[in-house]
Amino acid sequence: MARALRALRGAAGPERGPGPGPGLGPRVRFGPSPTGFLHLGGLRTALYNYIFAKKHQGTFILRVEDTDQNRVVPGAAEGIEDMLDWAGIPPDESPRRGGSFGPYQQSHRLDLYRRASDVLLERGAAYRCFCTPQRLELLKKEALRSQQTPRYDNRCRHLTPTEVAEKLSQGLDWVVRFRLEKGVEPFRDLVYGWNKHEVADVEGDPVILKGDGFPTYHLANVVDDHYMGISHVLRGTEWLTSTSKHLLLYKAFGWDPPQFGHLPLLLNKDGGKLSKRQGDIFLERFARDGYLPEALLDIITNCGSGFTEKQMGRTLEELISQFEIDRITTHSALLDLEKLPEFNRIHLTHHIENEELRQKLIRELQLLVEHVYGDQQVDQEVLEKEYVERVLLLRKGHISFLKNLVSSDYSYLWVRPSVSREQLQTISAEVDDIGKLVLGLMTRQAAVLTMEELNKDLRSLQKQTKETKYSSVMQLLRLALSGQQHGPSVAEMMVTLGPKEVCGRIHKALSS
Question: Which member of 167, 210, 251, 276 is catalytic?
Fold first, then answer.
């Protein structure tokens, strides 16, 4: 046994118990399986771990849990880390970034798990099981036929050393199972309070090392959390009933366990499971559709608990400062994604108001305009920084997505209309007089244009015509400014375009 213990210690450097060590902050981890894209439920778990770490000057670790090789999707692990970076919650240690406690991918730590299982075998806390898949399937069918929960009957637990040696000599396939003991000790969950689950009464001994040399979740997580110095395990509530099993493993190894906190479920607003149908909740979809990461972080915390305040529009820094783990309740968080565009509108407004972030939006909007309207002879003047910045500042608070500004309603901003004087004359014979009145109005209003003042001025302008109705004046101006019959109000167009652009378009129409 001593030899096995020394080998186990040597597999991952010096012996470490959980916890960050004296004077250091907590160490927490997010351990997704690379079976597909990162979804909102995974993002929420990662976010709570990140916030907890940053709140207490700790370390946030990404550990890829790829022990079920049949379900691994190529590129998924890299995609998950990409999305954490996009969301603004990058790990401090990860497969990509490295760290002192790697490797950070479980498929690269197989020797460590094998040595750990050897320790448990030598201590008698685990045993080799030679039951065939066919026998296990019969056990399952019999249990279901009897309307009982399927469980292993612990048959191989009672094999003698001689019987085990004989089966090994025959070259029979085997797995390692952990001996579940009765009389588990209660533990205090950071969210659910005192808990214990007599797993031995409802489960058979679980497999901890499979025949292919890969561990199951139970062994891998206990071993990794110990050797990576994890001090707090914050994970979904679906793992709450397994925690007593994990604590039995810690006890068998002689290790101190970390503190556990189980996060309540994230559900749809009607209380149902989040749908993964058509990628509705995958982060890649939200990023592609133009949502800001801040909006996602805001809504998935706003619908839950753990924060001193609950207003919309919170930044990540505010979430960190407001977070208190003892404020997390056991109630499921109900997520209403219909509210997400409004969250995005608020955070897009914040981005536009921030000088540095606004410069990034300007570049993105310039590219969007070129992409959407590039084949319509966009005048380079409407792509100039000052013009694009003006549009952003004036539409601030009115748009939920940057892409709204390249929709058909706003096409007049980017494509200067080709409208002739003759076209305008079909609306009113007073086209020249109306044009001069508008040019004069723009000269007087050059400093600041407001929709309220413009609406009053346009009413007054119409009264100075001889026989053109107000609706016809609006129709004429809309056509001259946008080339369109429908769209935003004329006052809104004029405010957004600005005096210089309005005058330029009126001059062009009158002279063509």
Answer: 276
Active site residue 210: no
- Helices 40-55 and 76-87: crossing angle in degrees, nearest 10, is 60
- Cβ 32 vs Cβ 64: under 8 Å: yes
| C-alpha to C-alpha distance for 148 and 331, rounded to whole angstroms | 30
Contacts of 422 (CB under 8 A, 6+ apart): none
Encode pLDDT of 151-176 as tens digits: 999 999 999 999 999 999 999 999 99
Mean pLDDT of the chain: 91
* Calpha distance 223→219 (Å, rounded): 6
Largest Cα span, the chain: 113
Cα separation values, 24 from 51, 230, 232, Å: 16, 12, 13
3-class SS of residue 482? helix
294/507 Cα distance (integer angstroms): 44
Residue 30 forms beta bridges with which residues? 62
Cis peptide upstream of residue 341 (ω within 30 degrees of 0) = no
What sign does the dihedral 323-329-333-339 (CA atoms) show?
negative
Angle at 59 between CA 57 and CA 65, to 5 degrees: 155
Tokens of 138: 């019969």
Cα separation, 284 vs 104, whole angstroms: 23
Which residue, chain included where needed, has tokens 């990509």? Answer: 96
**150: CB partners within 8 A, 6+ apart:** 139, 140, 143, 144
Q: How far is Cα 47 from Cα 360, in angstroms, rounded to an integer?
A: 25
pLDDT interval class at 5 (50, 70, 90): very low
Distance CA 188, CA 23 (A): 24
C-alpha separations of 303 from 44, 87, 335 in Å: 11, 18, 6
CA distance 511 to 508: 5
Torsion angle of alpha carbons 51, 52, 58, 64, nearest 10°?
Answer: -80
Per-residue pLDDT tens digits for 203-251? 999 999 999 999 999 999 999 999 999 999 999 999 999 999 999 999 9
The C-alpha atoms of residue 87 and residue 100 are separated, in whole angstroms, by 25
pTM of the model: 0.88
Beta bridge pairs of residue 259: 232
Q: Which backbone phi and psi does 165 adopt, to 5 degrees?
A: -60, -40
Give the DSSP per-residue string, 140-180. HHHHHHTT-------GGGG--HHHHHHHHHTT---EEEE--
CA distances from 458 to 484, 496, 507 (A): 19, 16, 18
Element (H, E) at 28: strand 27-30
List Cβ neighbours of 476 (8 Å cut-off, separation of 6 or more). 424, 427, 428, 431, 434, 468
